Amino acid sequence: MNRRLATLPTLALLACGLSVGPADADQAPLARAAGASGPSADTLDEVVVTARKREESVQDVPISISVLGGDALAAKGIVDIRTFATQVPGLVFSNHADLKTNETSIRGVRSESRSAGQDPSVGYYLDEVYLGGGVSTAIDYFDLQRIEVLRGPQGALFGRNTIGGVISLSTRRPTFSPEGYIEAGVGNYGLLEGRAAVSGPLVADRLAGRLAVSIADRDGYAKNVSTGRDVEDLGRKSARASLLFTPGERTELLATFDYLRVKQNSNALETYAYSSGAGNLLARFIGGFPGPNRDPYDRRVHGDLDPVEDLEAYGAHLRATVDFGSVSLVSISGYREHEYYSIYDTEQTVARWTYSSFPESVRRFSQEIRLASAPGENLDWLAGVYFYRQHTINNFVGGFGVDALGVLRLPPGFSVSSVGDQETQSYAAFTNVTYRFTPMLSATLGVRYTRDKKDITYNQFDPIGVIGGSRQFTSEKTFSRATPSLTLSYSPSPELLVYGLVANGFKSGGFNDFIGDATAAGFEPEKLWNYELGVKAELLERRLTMNASAFLMRWSDIQLQADNPDTPFFDPATRNAGSAESRGLELEVRYRPAERLSLSLAAAATDAKFTEGFLPDGRTPLRQIPYSPQYTANVGAEYRVPLAGSALDVEFRLEGQMTGVDYLDTSNIRESRVDAWQEVNAWVTLLEREDRWSVSLWGRNLTDEVRPTRFFNVLTNPLVGQQLIALNAPRTYGIRARLKF
Predict the structure, then answer these.
(1) Residue 553 · residue 583 · CB < 8 Å
(2) Strand partners, 662
(3) What are phi and psi for residue 568, nearest 5 degrees?
(4) What is the three-state SS of 400-412?
């Protein structure tokens, strides 16, 4: 039924558009695709974004925003959020070993959730359709027009799930002129990768199509000594098809379908430390601790089971646009679903002891309809309504091997489990109005009212109390809030913009649908205010672009998921645990000192700390927010050299990444601390001057930096008794060829 409903608003708009007469070329914004253009070879290109739901130059948008275009993504080999996150100041991706528990943090605002039903703090959008959190964000980055990262709460235009910011991905649209490309590469660890796209007309001037595919396969970064097999490998296949229908000059209908399949052996964690306590059943059974994993950084694990991760995901989006001249009408319908399964050796030992599985099933439908004025002399406005429905089934199965069954005297096949069946319905209305008092001074007021209704049925089977005991409940809650924003901007010249803003955001409340201390009470919304000053400047005849911002963010009723160290077993829960403050500076610089040389800098200094609240033990105060390093920086240089007597160039690209001290756990214990680190990436590319083909040699993490990216502390748990970590990717290198046609 949801799939049928998705077509109704767009078909209605299409019918309206067929009755609209022809438009002049300069009145048809649909004909202008977002892209880049520049007046000369030694100036920087103009970058067009849609951060405010309309096309604008990034230098004219009074928001702290970073953008990377499709050509830059391809040149840097960015194919996922892990490789993308280092390009953006203040953006941190946790890079856990699996797809489900990864966290995205912007300016220290993060969500610590291992469940399908809880809302994230950073909203991911694909062609303006909300993706969700966790597994839902694990899409492949291929055939993209651009990626925009909006820092700070975006509650007015994007909603409740953007308390920290937005990551918006825009795919390439079908074209009415034939085009395409093929890209293939190989690398160490047996890497095989390929991407391709073809686009062109199906019916002249009326119907165009585009098909893009991506595949990646790689051996594992680690070895499971117990089984002799590689783990932490890669196996991904993606496809996307889109159709663009233009029945009139002022009307278009764009339909997109995407598919993703992931099947890999991931989530093989290294043991950082073992428990030697007398009450630890695993230690008593195996003996001889500190155990077989004597080096947690050697990429050799010891589980008796190879981990498995399996994901199948689908998406269908339908966008209809009708330009009535002074007003345009847009409808965006989205349907997404996925099925996910994982299993791994919980305690990572050769003992046939415990296993964990975290399947989930998710269905999402969204519908947005909005009206927007044509660009005016003094006033621009936008208004819309939004509906979102989500159904999630979050599962856990904790199995016991024959060794544990014997020690615990349990029957064969015994397991503990939980099922959280949750439904969310969200309604919203929003508006955003910009008024220009003078050609230099303007104000933008935005506001969104959201109402969420959530209900859950939860069942947990745990007669022996290893995950908090057996319980079941059914509950329902409603949350509502208005999220305003106000921005003042002053532009004394076309090359300079100064702005100040205050914006509010909230993350909806909900229920614990994950294993552990689940209760019917659930948790309340998390609320945040952001205060920001910024400047955007184009200098030296557009050879230098410098964007800077200073921010102060204060939020309360923080949703914190943590295990209670005072209880012997694993019983995490999400609670409203306190307040926090984040303040910092962000700087992005692009400089072209000469036609062949380009330099870049993306840096942030952040101080994100809790100002009140305690861990679940009620005694230990909360301190630094995890995944919010003191600083992040990405420094890049690109130099292109023409080969004499040929139509070829050689391009050298060097990139350095630097990150300050960080913690991987809310407890801030010493073992979860990550010291400052640096990585170096490099590319050497031979390319045809008209950019029809290229061949690149590339290398990432050339110094082979090794560090933990995840810390999982179950040291006091009598069944597991360990501290476990995941590691970053090692040094990788390869060759990649690309042909355009």
Answers:
(1) yes
(2) 674
(3) -75, -20
(4) ECHHHHHHHCCCC
The three-state secondary structure class of 283 is helix
Distance in angstroms (rounded) separating the CA atoms of residues 5 and 17: 20
Query: What's the mean pLDDT in 110-139?
Result: 90
At 169, list the tokens: 């991905």
Helix (H) / strand (E) containing 4: helix 2-18
- Tens of pLDDT, residue by residue over 218-244, are 999 999 999 999 999 999 999 999 999
With contact defined as beta carbons under 8 Å apart, do 443 and 487 qualify? yes
Query: What residues contact residue 155 under an 8 Å CB cut-off, 6+ apart?
Result: 162, 163, 448, 450, 483, 485, 503, 504, 505, 506
Half-sphere exposure of 356 (CA within 13 A, CB side): 17
State the DSSP code for 525: P
State the Cα angle at 134 between 120 and 316, rounded to 5°: 100
Alpha-helix runs per DSSP H in 117-253: none
CA separation for the pair 700, 177 (Å, rounded) = 36
Tokens 């099933």 belong to residue = 361
Quote the CA–CA distance of 311 and 315 in Å, as a whole number. 13
Among residues 49, 251, 230, which one has the least CA distance to residue 157? Answer: 49
**Residues 43 and 542 sit within 8 Å (Cβ to Cβ):** yes
Q: How far apart are CA 163 and CA 151, in angstroms?
A: 9
d(CA 98, CA 709): 11
User: Residue 434: beta bridge partners?
Assistant: 380, 444
Q: Measured between alpha carbons, how far is 571 from 468 in angstroms, rounded to an integer?
A: 5
Are 236 and 273 within 8 A, CB to CB? no
Q: Could you tell me if 207 and 244 are in contact, meaning their C-beta atoms sit under 8 angstroms apart?
A: yes
Strands 104-106 and 732-740 come out as unpaired
Q: What is the dihedral of CA 567, 573, 575, 578, to 10 degrees?
A: 60
Greatest CA span in the chain, whole angstroms?
Answer: 82
**Strand ranges of the sheet holding 144-151, from the earlier edge strand across to the other edge:** 65-69, 144-151, 165-171, 122-126, 129-132
User: For 506-556, what is each residue's pLDDT tens digit?
Assistant: 999 999 898 887 777 889 999 999 999 999 999 999 999 999 999 999 999
Q: pLDDT by residue (tens digit) across 390-408? A: 999 999 999 999 999 999 9
Cβ atoms of 707 and 658 within 8 Å: the answer is no
What are the strands, taking DSSP E only, across 172-285? 179-187, 191-203, 207-218, 222-224, 229-231, 234-248, 251-264, 270-274
CB atoms within 10 A of CB 291: 22
Predicted local distance difference test score (pLDDT) of residue 288: 60
Residue partners of 363: CB distance under 8 A and separation at least 6: 2, 335, 336, 337, 390, 391, 392
Contact (Cβ atoms closer than 8 angstroms) between residue 558 and residue 577: yes
Determine how β-strand 327-345 pairs with β-strand 573-576: unpaired
CA 21 distance to own-chain centroid:
41
Other residues' Cβ atoms within 10 Å of the Cβ of residue 145: 19
Contact 719, 286 (CB under 8 A): no
10 Å Cβ neighbour count for 181?
A: 18
**Residue 119: what are its φ and ψ, rounded to 5°?**
-80, 145
574 φ/ψ angles, rounded to the nearest 5 degrees: -95, 130
| 288 touches 357 (CB < 8 A) | no
Structure tokens, 428: 């919203």
Mapping DSSP to helix (H, G, I), strand (E, B) and coil, where does residue 315 land?
strand
Average pLDDT of the chain to the nearest whole number: 91
The SS3 assignment for 25 reads helix
